[in-house]
Design a protein that fits this description.
This protein is mostly helical. It contains five helices and no strands. α4 runs antiparallel to α5 (145-164).
Length: 165
Protein backbone atom coordinates (compact mmCIF):
# COMPACT_ATOMS: atom_id res chain seq x y z
CA UNK A 1 0.00 0.00 0.00
CA UNK A 2 1.60 3.22 -1.16
CA UNK A 3 0.46 6.30 0.67
CA UNK A 4 1.50 9.71 -0.52
CA UNK A 5 0.67 12.87 1.27
CA UNK A 6 -0.01 15.97 -0.73
CA UNK A 7 -0.25 19.39 0.75
CA UNK A 8 -3.21 21.37 -0.43
CA UNK A 9 -2.37 24.98 -1.20
CA UNK A 10 -4.06 27.68 0.81
CA UNK A 11 -7.06 29.30 -0.85
CA UNK A 12 -5.93 32.73 0.24
CA UNK A 13 -2.26 33.79 0.59
CA UNK A 14 -3.00 35.27 4.03
CA UNK A 15 -4.50 31.98 5.19
CA UNK A 16 -1.06 30.36 5.53
CA UNK A 17 0.13 33.15 7.83
CA UNK A 18 -2.95 32.94 10.03
CA UNK A 19 -2.53 29.16 10.17
CA UNK A 20 1.08 29.54 11.33
CA UNK A 21 0.06 32.05 14.00
CA UNK A 22 -2.61 29.60 15.17
CA UNK A 23 0.01 26.83 15.33
CA UNK A 24 2.25 29.07 17.44
CA UNK A 25 -0.68 29.79 19.77
CA UNK A 26 -1.41 26.08 20.25
CA UNK A 27 2.28 25.32 20.85
CA UNK A 28 2.45 28.06 23.48
CA UNK A 29 -0.57 26.68 25.31
CA UNK A 30 0.95 23.20 25.38
CA UNK A 31 4.33 24.48 26.57
CA UNK A 32 2.75 26.56 29.34
CA UNK A 33 0.78 23.54 30.57
CA UNK A 34 3.94 21.42 30.62
CA UNK A 35 5.90 24.11 32.47
CA UNK A 36 3.12 24.54 35.04
CA UNK A 37 2.81 20.83 35.84
CA UNK A 38 6.49 19.87 35.70
CA UNK A 39 7.70 22.30 38.35
CA UNK A 40 5.11 21.72 41.09
CA UNK A 41 7.20 19.31 43.13
CA UNK A 42 8.81 20.30 46.42
CA UNK A 43 11.80 18.72 48.00
CA UNK A 44 10.22 17.34 51.13
CA UNK A 45 13.43 15.85 52.49
CA UNK A 46 15.07 19.27 52.57
CA UNK A 47 12.01 20.76 54.26
CA UNK A 48 12.07 18.03 56.93
CA UNK A 49 15.82 18.20 57.62
CA UNK A 50 15.82 21.83 58.82
CA UNK A 51 13.32 21.35 61.68
CA UNK A 52 15.12 18.19 62.80
CA UNK A 53 18.42 20.05 62.91
CA UNK A 54 16.81 22.89 64.85
CA UNK A 55 15.24 20.42 67.31
CA UNK A 56 18.51 18.62 67.98
CA UNK A 57 20.45 21.89 68.25
CA UNK A 58 17.93 23.21 70.79
CA UNK A 59 18.09 19.92 72.69
CA UNK A 60 21.90 20.09 72.77
CA UNK A 61 21.70 23.67 74.04
CA UNK A 62 19.38 22.61 76.84
CA UNK A 63 21.64 19.74 77.83
CA UNK A 64 24.69 21.99 77.92
CA UNK A 65 23.21 24.14 80.70
CA UNK A 66 24.75 23.91 84.17
CA UNK A 67 21.49 22.96 85.85
CA UNK A 68 19.91 19.70 84.71
CA UNK A 69 16.64 20.42 82.84
CA UNK A 70 13.39 18.68 83.70
CA UNK A 71 12.16 15.92 81.44
CA UNK A 72 9.11 17.96 80.45
CA UNK A 73 11.27 20.89 79.24
CA UNK A 74 13.56 18.51 77.33
CA UNK A 75 10.61 17.43 75.19
CA UNK A 76 8.67 20.67 74.76
CA UNK A 77 11.27 23.48 74.72
CA UNK A 78 12.97 22.52 71.41
CA UNK A 79 9.60 22.28 69.62
CA UNK A 80 9.21 26.06 69.19
CA UNK A 81 12.49 26.57 67.25
CA UNK A 82 11.74 23.45 65.22
CA UNK A 83 8.29 24.79 64.25
CA UNK A 84 9.76 28.16 63.27
CA UNK A 85 12.38 26.40 61.21
CA UNK A 86 9.71 24.19 59.60
CA UNK A 87 7.67 27.25 58.62
CA UNK A 88 10.75 28.98 57.19
CA UNK A 89 11.77 25.90 55.18
CA UNK A 90 8.22 25.40 53.91
CA UNK A 91 7.93 29.02 52.78
CA UNK A 92 11.35 28.89 51.13
CA UNK A 93 10.39 25.75 49.20
CA UNK A 94 7.06 27.27 48.15
CA UNK A 95 8.66 30.48 46.91
CA UNK A 96 11.35 28.52 45.11
CA UNK A 97 8.71 26.49 43.25
CA UNK A 98 6.83 29.68 42.34
CA UNK A 99 10.04 31.30 41.10
CA UNK A 100 10.82 28.28 38.91
CA UNK A 101 7.29 28.28 37.50
CA UNK A 102 7.45 31.99 36.75
CA UNK A 103 10.87 31.64 35.15
CA UNK A 104 9.67 28.78 32.93
CA UNK A 105 6.57 30.78 31.96
CA UNK A 106 8.72 33.80 31.14
CA UNK A 107 11.04 31.75 28.94
CA UNK A 108 8.06 30.22 27.15
CA UNK A 109 6.51 33.64 26.64
CA UNK A 110 9.78 35.02 25.26
CA UNK A 111 10.09 32.14 22.80
CA UNK A 112 6.48 32.59 21.79
CA UNK A 113 6.93 36.30 21.28
CA UNK A 114 9.97 35.66 19.09
CA UNK A 115 8.02 33.11 17.02
CA UNK A 116 5.05 35.43 16.71
CA UNK A 117 7.31 38.33 15.68
CA UNK A 118 8.91 36.13 13.01
CA UNK A 119 5.53 35.05 11.64
CA UNK A 120 4.25 38.63 11.71
CA UNK A 121 7.35 39.85 9.86
CA UNK A 122 6.82 37.17 7.22
CA UNK A 123 3.19 38.21 6.79
CA UNK A 124 4.20 41.87 6.63
CA UNK A 125 6.76 41.09 3.93
CA UNK A 126 4.06 39.35 1.92
CA UNK A 127 1.73 42.35 2.31
CA UNK A 128 4.47 44.74 1.21
CA UNK A 129 5.33 42.57 -1.80
CA UNK A 130 1.68 42.53 -2.90
CA UNK A 131 1.47 46.29 -2.40
CA UNK A 132 4.54 46.83 -4.58
CA UNK A 133 3.09 44.52 -7.24
CA UNK A 134 -0.25 46.32 -7.12
CA UNK A 135 1.48 49.70 -7.33
CA UNK A 136 3.39 48.68 -10.48
CA UNK A 137 0.38 47.03 -12.06
CA UNK A 138 -2.17 49.75 -11.26
CA UNK A 139 -0.51 53.07 -10.40
CA UNK A 140 -3.85 54.80 -9.87
CA UNK A 141 -4.58 52.51 -6.89
CA UNK A 142 -1.42 53.65 -5.07
CA UNK A 143 -2.98 57.04 -4.35
CA UNK A 144 -6.30 55.71 -3.05
CA UNK A 145 -7.14 56.29 0.63
CA UNK A 146 -7.46 52.53 1.26
CA UNK A 147 -3.98 51.87 -0.09
CA UNK A 148 -2.54 54.70 2.03
CA UNK A 149 -4.30 53.30 5.11
CA UNK A 150 -2.88 49.80 4.46
CA UNK A 151 0.59 51.32 4.01
CA UNK A 152 0.30 53.18 7.35
CA UNK A 153 -0.86 50.01 9.09
CA UNK A 154 2.10 48.10 7.69
CA UNK A 155 4.42 50.85 8.95
CA UNK A 156 2.89 50.62 12.44
CA UNK A 157 3.37 46.84 12.47
CA UNK A 158 6.99 47.27 11.36
CA UNK A 159 7.59 49.84 14.12
CA UNK A 160 6.11 47.47 16.72
CA UNK A 161 8.34 44.65 15.49
CA UNK A 162 11.40 46.90 15.78
CA UNK A 163 10.53 47.62 19.43
CA UNK A 164 10.32 43.87 20.10
CA UNK A 165 13.61 43.05 18.44
Amino acid sequence: MNTTFTATPAKDPGQATFSAIGDVHVAVGNAMDRAATAKRRRRWAAVAIYPLLAYFASLAALLSLDAPPRLNSLLTAPIAPALVCLAAAWLRASWKVRARNNQAALKTAQKTLESLAHETASGLDAIRAHMIGLRTEMPEVANSPHFVRIHRGADRIRAALRRLG
